[in-house]
Structure formats: C-alpha cells, structure tokens
Write a structure and sequence with these properties.
Layout lengths: L1 E4 L5 E6 L11 E6 L10 E3 L6 E9 L10 E8 L11 E8 L10 E2 L15 E7 L5 E7 L2 E7 L10 E4 L20 E4 L10 E7 L8 E7 L10 E2 L9 E9 L4 E8 L9 E7 L7 E4 L18 E5 L2 E10 L2 E6 L2 E2 L6 E11 L2 E23 L10 E12 L3 E7 L5 E11 L4 E3 L3 E5 L6 E2 L10 E8 L3 E9 L4 E10 L2 E8 L6 E9 L2 E9 L2
Antiparallel strand pairs: 1-2, 2-3, 3-4, 5-6, 6-7, 7-8, 9-10, 10-11, 11-12, 13-14, 14-15, 15-16, 17-18, 18-19, 19-20, 21-22, 22-23, 22-24, 25-26, 25-36, 26-27, 26-28, 26-29, 29-30, 29-31, 32-33, 33-36, 34-35, 34-37, 37-38
Length: 534
Amino acid sequence: PCVLFDSLGNLYYGHLSNPVTGYWIDRIVVQKSTDNGMTWNDGAGVGFVNPKNQDKEWLAVDLSQSQYKGNIYLTWTEFDDYGSSNPADSSRIRFSKSTDQGETWSDAITISDRSGNCIDSDNTTEGAVPAVGLNGEIYVSWAGPLGLMVDKSLDGGETWGTDIFISDIPGGWDFDVPGISRCNGLPITMSDISESPYRGYIYSCWGDQRNGTSDTDVFFSRSTDGGETWSPALKVNDDNTNRHQFFPWMTIDQTTGIIWGVFYDRRNTTGSTTDVYVVKSIDGGQSFENFKVSESSFTPTSSVFFGDYSNITAWDNKIFPIWSRLQSGQLSVWTAIIEDTVTVPVEFTQFSAAAYSGNVILEWETSTEINNLGFEIERASSSTTPLFNEWIRIGFREGHGTTTGPNRYSFTDEELLSGVYQYRLKQIDYDGSFKYSAIVELNLIAVNDFRLEQNYPNPFNPSTTISYQLPKDEFVTVKIFDTIGNEVKTIVKENKPAGVHEVNFDASHLSSGIYLYRIDAGTFHQSKKMLLVK
C-alpha cells in the first residue's frame, strides 16, 4: 500500500483489494481524500484482468511544470498465476494513469519488454516504483531475469522506450536473510527536481547478495543523462562485517537535493537481532554517511511478510524514516524525527535577471555573509540544452568574507542570441562547501511594448516570481498591497533598461490571502492579483 499527496492537497491511497476466498489478490484500488484522510471516496479499480493477479503497486504524481502536471501514475506487477511454476505463466510490469485527480484511470499497459516467471523468484519480473523528472518524464525500475532494468516515457505514459540495464542484482528479487520469511531487492526510483547541483539526476537503490548469501548489502546507482546510462553499483552501507543490510528505501529532500535512505542492519548484532540505519548523501550519491536511528535492537519474525514497506520522506531538512518491528510479540510501526541542521553561509535577499540590447544583466544582494569566498555564475540555454540539465560557468564575483550588512553584486552576460536562458549562482565558502541560489529564467526577445505578467507560481508559498517588460529605459516601481490598499512592500524602485525583467517576492512573513502587485513605469500603470496559500 502507498499514500500520496498531489499539489492540490488531495490524498491518494493505493492498495490491493480483498480477493474472493481462495484467490490471490486480483485488482488494485485507488481511493481519494480531500480532507487530509478524514473521509475517503469508494475509489477506482485499476488493473483488473480476471483471473490474473496484481501486486506491489506504487503511485507517483507529476509536480513538474510540463503539460502533464497533476497526472497521477501507478505501476505494479501482474502475474498470470501467482506462485505457478507453469512455463506458460509469466509476470510483467504494468502502468496506468489518471488525468482527473484519480476519478478514472487509463487502461493498463505493459511497459517491461522481458517477462519473467510467476514463482516470485530471481527470474520473476517484479517491482516497481515510479518517479517523475524535471520535464514530466516518467522513470520506472524493476528487477527481472536480465537484472535491474529501467524504462522511461517522455509523453505522459502514452509510449515507452526500450528497457535499459542498470545493474546485475545477484540474489535478486527473492533472497534469504535469517529470521525473515523472505527479502526482496525491490528497486526504488528517484528523480532530483531540486535546485541542487544534481538537479535532473535519476537514482535507483536496491538490495542484493553479490557479496555472498551471508552478506546482503544495499546498493545505489545514478544516471546523469536522463536514464540512458548508469554508474557502477555503489555499496551504501559502510560496514565490513559480512552481516546483512536489507529492505532499503530512499528519498530526496527536494529543498536541498540531499538523498536520505533507511534499511534494516545487523552490523552491530548477532543472530537475527536487527537495528535500523539511516544514510545521507550530500554529493549526489557518490558517498553515504551511515548512522543508527533505532534506539534498541529487535528480533523479526519469519511467520509473516515483514519489512516490504519501510519508507522514508524528507522535506526542508526534516527527515521521517518509517519501519516495522516486532515488540513483545506484536508487530508495530515506528518512526523517528530527524532535523538536519545546515549552516547557510550566505543569505540571498534578491536575485534578478534583465535583458538589454542582447545582453543579460544579473543582479543579486545578500543580507549577511559568513566566510563567503565568492560566486560562480552559471548559465543553461534552451538552444543548446533543451532540458536545462547542463550548466556552464560563465564568470565569478569575489565575495565579502564575513559581513553583517547588505552587499550588492552584478554581472553582465554579453552578446547573446535570442532564446531562453537560465542562470544560477554557486556561492562558495572558504572551506570549499557551496550552495546554489534559486534559478532565474529570461526569454531574450525583442520587446515592443509594456507588459506586466501574471506571477508564477500562483497560488504560491512562500515565494513567487513577478516579470515585466519595458520597451525603453524607465524608472520602475513594483509594489505589493493588501486587499484594502495598504502597501506591504516595495520590491523594485530604480531605473531599469529596456527588456524583460523578473523579480522574486518572498512572502514568508505574510499570512495567507489575496495580494495585489502594481507596476509604475513612466506612463504605464497596471495591477494584478496573486494568492498566497500557507
């Protein structure tokens, strides 16, 4: 079973249905709640093809700015006859989607090229956890007869490519760990859509026994080219004890790009006694820090399926791992609340881009600086990198070390062709640590008239971008007002050159509600509404 929120606040619960007595579960149901789980609708059935059996369902939502934003995706394993050793029976990965907030679902399609058996073994095609990329791409990985595979769709799940090999998965789907009924190597797919240096990377994590049946380990691979090629498998657990680490799950804190994982671990125990470990990677999965999160060890049971649905979620440096354990003969679900404190060496208060005569002028301001070596300026262009995944360094500005007052910076990117450009700042500390700014985007086109655009995103929380264009140089003010006309803040008050400009407005200090923003530029005056939802 799995739960999922979409960007509208709808909560979805995907689960297997209760089968007719004597039959394996033959369908999936996805229910929806619009009141944070207080009440639920009856749900919609997905994937029912009697007498086939369904298992291992998982959901993902498209949070990109693509045309597929808001789509809900569901992937799972289908068996002709679960547990059958008949060579005529096979297993496969299936896919369905909803474009109307879970009310209806598309007919299921098969996305795995190679089928497996139905024995629930290494030669079973089984998974799968979907993930959505920067531009609405869908990625799904699974284990099967050929190893760990991944497939992707670039058109909202209408069509799928050829399966791509990630790694061998020795021990594969079904391997033995003492004290557990059985373990699996279910691969977890992740996509980095943060503003970190690893934005656009695709990750997969799983467990296998390539180091021997007495030494189950957790492994990780990443793709930097949209899933086309994958790095060699990296062992995540950092012990050398020849003990078992199993049932991993991973996630990305999309506010930081930090990868977090959780798994069962026996490095410090004997027999079947088990701990729970959490891992953290701040370098895009090139290395992992390990630490124990469970307060006490426990001994699992082999009498029931156990551990399939451990999980972990992270947001804004708060991490919540979830796991099952056996306590006083009773199965229970546990969590921990981890707060990852991060020192921010520089606090940005403004970062904007403006076009002028084929040039782009970048301006930014800091309110405080701690050990600030300086800023690398990076650019991505739609004309050369359509997915905005490749950044090039175009300049550097020296920082002010440690200061408590505001500092202003600027940089001009000269003689550019028409096109869409993105810019970001890489703020570097004296010790080599760094942090990326938000991304600003600018469409370098000829400007013939005044215009104030609708803010984006809208509704927003807590920040939004306001853009405007000027056909000639003007003194510009942009102000924020509440609905009764009180001025809240002036965010632009200066001479601006002709071109397209954008400014970020941070409303962290304001309460939810409707606000107005107004531009005054010479004889041009215009106001628009925006909605802050916290």
